[in-house]
Design brief:
The chain has 2 domains: 4-133, no CATH class; 147-333, P-loop containing nucleotide triphosphate hydrolases (Rossmann fold), CATH 3.40.50.300. Helices cover 24% and strands 27% of the residues. The chain is built from 7 helices and 18 strands. It has helices at residues 159-172, 189-196, 217-234, 253-260, 274-284, 299-309, 322-333, and strands at 4-6, 21-23, 35-41, 49-51, 57-59, 65-70, 72-74, 79-82, 90-95, 99-106, 115-124, 127-128, 147-152, 177-183, 201-204, 238-243, 264-270, 290-292. The protein has a 6-stranded parallel β-sheet with strand order 15-14-16-13-17-18, with helices on both faces. Strand 7 and strand 8 (79-82) form a beta hairpin. Helix 1 runs parallel beside helix 2 (189-196), helix 3 (217-234) runs parallel beside helix 4 and helix 5 runs parallel beside helix 6. It starts with a strand and ends in a 5-residue tail after the last helix.
Length: 338
């Protein structure tokens, strides 16, 4: 017997408690953030897991149905795809969180992604149900929470590891920390890491009604402002915010930095190699306060970062690096940390 699994992108919705209908809708009427149901097809492999609303990775098999959302992804290391490229109802899981579309470019190093057949849109009262229906409605306001912003040279550069350590250091000093992932493609695991590190509140762009932040800049700003307003209203002592992917990818990283404005007190760049640090500086015009990630794996790598850029670098995987990271955060936040 098949089952229906609710993917992470539907965590803001009420599909577990309120009735809904399923209706086939012409592809020309599909839209970003539409909630749809796909049925698993194809032989399983190690990617056949769906991230649920709690962050659990649930194995799925052919015949299972998954509630997800239509969207876009432009992963530099894994794959590129979108819902506009779907043909004959054949869907790919662009992320395991239930981001649905069709891949147009896929790394040859990956196993074949989860494939599904479109079984219809979730509808209520004759209209399709969208992520934006459940988005935060808080009033936008000037964002004032001191922010540690974690950016990267690409996906999987070590941003979450750096942000998690920042949360641990700040929480250990008695601060109320909010953890957030404000750009990227929907996954829960990153901000869950911040919560496990002690963040008292966690948020991501899913709360703003977005399956990923590959949307027109005006749409991104309109969606993210109420979420930032909600975070500011709760007044944590500090926010550790991850910007998924890199500032140069089409996820609205530059717009996010503009929205955070003067609240940004420290920028941590997670980089793959020392030369990519130079690339971000030159291409994006940002000089980070600290470099982390694989670019800092050895003393030779750190020495090269210093030679090329003069920016402090630390290997956050090394426990001996904690005092240096703590000192930097204390300096940038202008408060004593222990």
């Amino acid at each position: 017997m098949s089952r229906t699994v609710i993917g992470y992108l539907a965590r803001i919705a009420d599909f577990d408690s309120q009735p809904y209908d399923v209706e086939l809708i012409e592809h020309s009427n599909w839209g970003n953030g539409d909630y749809v149901i796909g049925q698993i097809t194809g032989p399983e492999n190690d990617l056949y897991n769906i991230e649920t609303r709690t962050g659990e990775m649930l194995p799925v098999v052919a015949g299972d149905k998954v509630i997800g959302a239509l969207g876009r992804r432009a992963g530099t290391l894994q794959g590129v795809g979108d819902y506009l490229s779907v043909k004959n109802g054949h869907l790919d899981a662009l992320t395991n969180a239930g981001l649905f579309g069709a891949y147009t470019s896929l790394s040859q190093l990956l196993s074949k992604p989860i494939s599904l057949l479109y079984r219809g849109h979730i509808v209520r009262h004759g209209r399709k149900v969208q992520m934006s229906d459940f988005a935060v409605r808080n009033k936008a306001r000037k964002f004032t929470v001191p922010t540690i912003l974690i950016i990267g040279t690409s996906m999987s550069a070590g941003k979450t590891v750096s942000g998690t350590l920042a949360c641990k250091i700040l929480v250990a000093s008695g601060l109320k920390v909010a953890g957030a992932k404000l750009t990227g493609a929907g996954r829960y695991r990153d901000i869950l890491s911040f919560q496990r590190a002690g963040a008292s509140q966690i948020y991501d762009f899913v709360d703003a009604g977005l399956p990923s932040t590959i949307v027109p800049e005006k749409e991104f700003r309109a969606a993210i402002r109420p979420l930032l307003g909600l975070i500011d209203e709760h007044q944590p002592d500090v926010m550790v915010a991850e910007a998924g992917a890199s500032p140069l990818e089409p996820y609205n990283g530059a717009a996010l930095m503009d929205e955070l404005g003067d609240a940004i007190r420290c920028i941590v760049l997670a980089a793959f190699d020392p030369y990519s640090v130079v690339g971000v500086q030159q291409a994006f015009g940002v000089t980070p306060d600290l470099v982390t990630g694989p670019a800092t794996s050895t003393t030779a790598a750190c020495a090269l970062v210093d030679k090329l850029t003069g920016i402090q670098s630390i290997n956050v995987l090394d426990p001996a690096s904690v005092p240096a990271f703590r000192d930097l955060l204390a300096e940038k936040l202008d408060r004593e940390l222990r």
